[in-house]
Amino acid sequence: xxxxxxxxxxxxxxxxxxxxxxxxxxxxxxxxxxxxxxxxxxxxxxxxxxxxxxxxxxxxxxxxxxxxxxxxxxxxxxxxxxxxxxxxxxxxxxxxxxxxxxxxxxxxxxxxxxxxxxxxxxxxxxxxxxxxxxxxxxxxxxxxxxxxxxxxxxxxxxxxxxxxxxxxxxxxxxxxxxxxxxxxxxxxxxxxxxxxxxxxxxxxxxxxxxxxxxxxxxxxxxxxxxxxxxxxxxxxxxxxxxxxxxxxxxxxxxxxxxxxxxxxxxxxxxxxxxxxxxxxxxxxxxxxxxxxxxxxxxxxxxxxxxxxxxxxxxxxxxxxxxxxxxxxxxxxxxxxxxxxxxxxxxxxxxxxxxxxxxxxxxxxxxxxxxxxxxxxxxxxxxxxxxxxxxxxxxxxxxxxxxxxxxxxxxxxxxxxxxxxxxxxxxxxxxxxxxxxxxxxxxxxxxxxxxxxxxxxxxxxxxxxxxxxxxxxxxxxxxxxxxxxxxxxxxxxxxxxxxxxxxxxxxxxxxxxxxxxxxxxxxxxxxxxxxxxxxxxxxxxxxxxxxxxxxxxxxxxxxxxxxxxxxxxxxxxxxxxxxxxxxxxxxxxxxxxxxxxxxxxxxxxxxx
Length: 607
Fold this sequence. Notes:
- The chain is an alpha+beta fold.
- The protein has 16 helices and 24 strands.
- The chain has helices at residues 23-31, 40-53, 80-83, 93-99, 119-123, 156-207, 212-223, 255-265, 274-281, 292-298, 303-311, 346-382, 435-452, 459-472, 562-573, 581-590; strands at 6-7, 12-13, 57-63, 67-74, 85-87, 103-105, 127-134, 140-148, 230-236, 242-249, 285-287, 316-322, 329-336, 393-400, 411-417, 423-430, 479-488, 494-501, 507-509, 515-517, 522-523, 537-541, 546-550, 599-606.
- A 6-stranded antiparallel beta sheet has the order 5-4-3-8-7-6, sandwiched between helices.
- Strand 12 and strand 13 form a beta hairpin.
- It is rod-shaped and about 130 Å long.
- It starts with 5 loop residues before the first strand and ends with a strand.
């Protein structure tokens, strides 16, 4: 079939030209950044052609695979003037692209190549002169053409003028291509810089926390929008199944839909799921051109494809999260770009794989931390006693470890009833935050019990004897402690006697809400080398009065004096007589933010 034959089904000429589909030519055409919109520079070329050659129609025509469009045009009839484009059935300029030389036709109706072209009846093209418009490599992108609606004998001078203008117009096209190349290079440089900056900060970003959920959230926000429009981070359970999925989208208004998609992934992944494949094989997957239909094929829930379409689903890649040292796949990172963003390439894949390795180390550390912390908390609480239920006294206690530490601490409390019915309460803090401090804390608490149980000595004498036992048994410790006895008074109520070895002062919340600080005497710590004769004090407790013992984690901060923390604690306790002892303890523990040390707390209220 020749170029001038008509496709009977379409009713218009069918042109077969390999030049029109040349990928390099089409890429160069796209790099001009031009389309069927008016461009002042190219409209100027069209006006010059019309004026200098005295023609009613002049076009800067760029020819694509299946259309021609006019960034520069003058004199076209409607509706073509508004559309600024035609299908190739109405194109003479496609032949200039095909033959790569000027095409000059005094009367197009006489030439077999074009006489059936619909441009003749629909656009009134009779006389035509078209000069090639080329890029730097000489590829013909279109034509600068002069058109008349009646036959015309083109003069040599007119054709020379048209050729000169076509050369200048080609130079403008090349500038546009060069500008696009420069902008593309700048974009690539900026993207590369963004990726390098992100990778440089990634270790610090992930290493700043030992909480798994926080690590995953930070990971997502670090990758979006630098690497992708949105992302999914999947972590597995011990059976290798998706346990949790976190999502981040560049558009905050899409956050809820992204979170919903993430929730559905834990139960809605089909057997052909790419995420399952990555989790199973540990092999990355890059899809440069994906569709929502792919989501439908790989999921089991009909809601997921619709969500993917709203979130923007085109190019995507998935890489494994591998545990450091073991190589086991513990998760998957999925990056997704919408149709308006460039597809992922091998460079993006390598970057994502690097992030997967770094994430594996961070998540592995977080899991290890969680396990160690759980063991530490179980061990710590196993060293703390169950509180007795003495007659006439209501007890409550709390122990709260620092949130970001796995060591066992040296804070402790104790309460036990003497054979004569007295209640002995104690609180202390052994220096250090490690297993040795915890072991020493256990020894010290047991010494207090063994030293005090069954004895009626004053509390000062009990602490003096405890000092002697620490020195005599060569227990390597320095510790603070408060030892107190609550004894039923003959006149009603209780009598409190206490002795303080370098510990924060006990507090009394009196009936009516007033708070007293029992700040004297505060004597040296336990475990010092020289013997110390300790002294005690005594005060009555009326029914409803509350004794509060606590460790320094409740009041001490690096950025303020201890006295300020104590004043703040007194303020929080004001009116505490209206709360139960459990409510009072909860108020104190939850009110402390950014704790730097463990908290132990013991409250005893007289009835």
